[in-house]
Specification:
Order of helices and strands: HHHHHHEEHHH
Number of helices: 9
Largest sheet: 2 strands, antiparallel
Distance between the termini: 46 Å
Strand content: under 5%
Number of strands: 2
Structural class: mainly alpha
Radius of gyration: 22 Å
Strand order of the largest sheet: 1-2
Length: about 240
């Protein structure tokens, strides 16, 4: 499994980085990571668009979820069953946004292996494809920070942009008209609270404990995701009615 992981993920990313070093005039690792992040996000665009669409569809299901709550008031088990059945009927996956995060984990592990385990910025020619040119000099310094070491600044930027990205992706849920929160309300609120406040803390500690390169990747992907989501929402607004929060 380790050999397949190296061959099909680590080596392609490593060769792309080295190739970028030959293109970028200053052979800056930070700029190369930013380019790699944009490439990854473009590849994941279909999945990201699907996640945004699912979020909008969930907002549009609010009236039906409210009816389920009123009809099965006092029966939490039936509320849960009907809520999940509604998601299935409308083909809405409330966890689609999490899938986008999970898919990126192998890329993060690959970057860690490249920058920490291969002796970077020294180029390991054994990992290079025959058509990739070895750059003369590569710098691991980005804006005065060594990306092979910890960076509390980049870790903080990764965490704060994670918060805003999740806040944008999960608009506040409407208050129940009956005053009693339903299973759907509780599920949505609990997920939003945990993701919005807990996940950025996790991102900070992971980013800081590993290296600046992971923090820079997370920071860049968050900025790209925020911009991507704004654009996708604007495009879908003409097709899908988005209820006001």
């Amino acid at each position: 499994m380790s050999t397949l992981y190296t061959k099909f993920l680590v080596e392609p990313i490593y060769n792309t980085l080295v190739a970028l070093f030959s293109i970028i005039p200053v052979a800056d690792a930070g700029l190369a990571i930013i380019f790699i992040t944009i490439i990854v996000r473009l590849i994941l665009y279909p999945l990201s668009k699907k996640a945004v669409t699912a979020q909008i569809e969930m907002q549009n299901l609010a009236p039906e979820l409210e009816q389920i709550k009123i009809k099965y008031k006092g029966n939490q088990e039936e509320q849960a069953r009907k809520t999940l059945a509604l998601y299935k009927e409308k083909k809405v996956n409330p966890f689609s946004g999490i899938l986008v995060l999970i898919v990126q984990l192998p890329v993060i592990f690959a970057l860690y292996k490249i920058f920490i385990s291969t002796g970077f910025p020294t180029i390991d020619t054994t990992l290079l494809y025959s058509f990739v040119k070895v750059p003369g000099e590569v710098s691991a310094i980005f804006l005065g920070m060594d990306l092979t070491h910890k960076s509390i600044i980049l870790a903080f930027l990764a965490a704060i942009t994670t918060y805003f990205q999740i806040k944008l992706a999960t608009p506040p849920t409407k208050k129940s008209s009956s005053g009693t929160p339903s299973f759907g309300d509780d599920l949505a609120k609990n997920m939003q609270a945990q993701m919005k406040y807990f996940f950025p803390v996790i991102v900070f500690f992971i980013s800081y404990s590993i290296s600046g390169v992971i923090a820079l990747y997370w920071f860049t992907t968050n900025l790209f995701t925020i911009g991507q989501e704004i654009i996708v929402r604007k495009r879908l607004k003409a097709q899908v009615s988005i209820p006001k929060a």
